[in-house]
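Following up on my earlier thread - several people asked me to post the actual chain instead of describing it. Fair enough. Here it is, all 409 residues.
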Amino acid sequence: MIPEGVRRVADTIMYEGYVLYPYRASAGKNRSRWQFGVLMPPAYLASDSCERDSMTLQCLVVDPGPVTVTARFLQVQRRTPADSGQSWDEAVEREVSVRVPGDSPFTVPGGTERSGDVTRARRELTGTVSARLTDLPGPWGAARLTVTLSNGTAADGPARREDALPFALVAAHLIVTVPEGTFLSLTDPPEWASAFASECENDGCWPVLAGDGARTVLASPVILPDYPSIAAESAGDLYDSTEIDEILTLRTLALTDEEKAEARATDPRAAALIDRVEATASDGAALGQLHGTFRPVSPPGPGDSPDAPWWDPEADASVSPSTDSVVVAGRQVARGSRVTLRPGTIASGRGADAQDMFLAGREAVVEAVLRDVDDATHLAVTLTDDPGAEIRSALGRFLYFSPDEVEPC
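Reply from S.P.:
Thanks for posting it. Predicted structure:
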């Protein structure tokens, strides 16, 4: 069984790009839909080698026991009105669940339906889910799981992408569950498994731990962190997760009544989106929470306030930017030291700010020696010939360089 939280994240990925801001079928962005996890029919690859017809997942599991793989994707359904009304590609959710190991062919039936003056047509899809476990050496009881989802649909070599999409598996992704085993993170594997993790090859998807514990892996065409979740502030799907919810909401509210009517006519999901956005606008708190939130890097410890910052520089005696120093070219550099700026360049691999070249050779005063969370050192400086240096210093508006980008005067 797929955990509900995992299914919510997977659904968000599956419908990414289903309708695109500003949500009307006639909008330019909606002419280029179906971009994520598209597995085209093999014949189409001769027309466009940038597309793929399969995706492969590899991950690590300890004491796997029974393994279930669920392949999920959308089947394109073409909606065509008899009159001059709006045509639209809808989607039908499909799932194929198989046990490991083995090769499991599947067929998704096509069909044509008529409702009033509207015709909805789907093409038959065929494919295969291939899965196997390979035992790994060592005392850990670990194995490498390999799963390939392939589109085997026969098509007559359509030359245009829009003609090939009805034969495609769209927004394809994989969910793997092991009720008795434990998956290992490929992002942060235990030390003993790091070499095995580096040998895993993933093509067209990236697996992350999902749900409670480590018994579920979600492999999607979108790179996610381990244990992804839907933000509590999100009121519902906007289908355009490369944008910002607040911007999308405000932009949708700015549509004219005619444009909103067109969006509602695009698709039931678009209609629900417009209705929800308008309801959000009447709730100041709901709209305000989209503006942003702060979350601690790690959960509060016993006795800590949930609102306490994850780090309080005033309470940490190990750092003191106003008195700390760093050795540069054999000399101590601290607040008040004068230095000549020698910024790195893109070519040298030491910097990437094109504006740095205007500061090369300029003299500056060190205002603070700072260390970041990775323990790297940075110098905050102001230019000695800057007439606004005193104001910048008072406001903390500094320029920042690494110690190897300055020379002591």
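The first strand starts at residue 54 and ends at 62. That should answer part of your original question.
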